[in-house]
Amino acid sequence: MAGEIGLRRRGQAYVALAALAWSTAGVLQRELSVGVSTQVAGRALFAAFALLAVVLVSERGRGWRAFRAIGWAGLGVAVCAAVASSAFIVALNHTTVANVLFMQALAPIAAAAISWVALGEAVGARTAFAMGVALCGVGVMVGGPGSASALGLGLSVLMTLAFAAGLVITRHRREVSMAPAFCLSQVLVLAVVGPFSHPRTIGSHDLALVALLGIGQIGLGFAFMTLGARLIPAAEVALISLLEIALGPLWVWLAHSERPATATLLGGIVVVAAVVVQATTDRPAIAAGTDVAGTQPTMTPARQALPHASSGKRRYRRRLTP
User: Fold this and answer.
1) How far apart, in Å, are the Cα atoms of 16 and each of 42, 221, 228, 302, 307?
2) How many structural domains comprise the chain?
3) Which residues form the domain of 213?
């Protein structure tokens, strides 16, 4: 019993550290003085190397085999992750950190909606209620004074939908570790955005910040989530990872006096409450092949909060662990 408690506390600590790493995106981005394309490309370059290291360690050096195993589904996840990752950084340049992170928190609920519409999967009453509450929260965020610009809002929605689509694809290929797909996503970002970047404009200060975004915010966050997600239940992972939503705007508020609008805070609280409702859904185990498995450890808070989380997810986690 004592050993189990110790493992659970260790898992909680790992997930909290992952959320802490992810929460630094906004405050680091606000310190950058280079163009948007250079920000995106530089972050992707360092993130690709960091995620490659994570894959090689978790797969015990069998990296090439792991990349080949992702198949077409993995390529789909890579494209979704590339779009979401790029939209995230660009959105931070056009709206507040709070707006972006609160919209990002919707990814698990959006994934449930996509599965319902595209795949005809049943949505439980509690998840449907969470969807309705989340939409109300978004309405408050968008309709209130100080809401995001049209471009910032559009990019945030694109980011959330791409995250959600990646979650759905990962769920249906839960037997394959998608960690290499997230690494590949950063290579795709670099290939697309790299030609439009201006690396000569990056000074030592900006270089250090971009490296922290790629290695620390993405790579370190991914590594901690990989360690923690195998030690505690999915709902607990989802709830602890919501720390990113609370800490991200806080760091920017303290460092840059970027106070979120009242409507953003109220709407964001409603969104987070909806995610908590969905994450704490207590469902009986269901047959393998219909449960949701697969996480998005480098992109979203509450990444594991898809409905019907069950034994498939535990199988997926074991593939990720060294």
Assistant:
1) 26, 9, 9, 12, 22
2) 1
3) 13-320
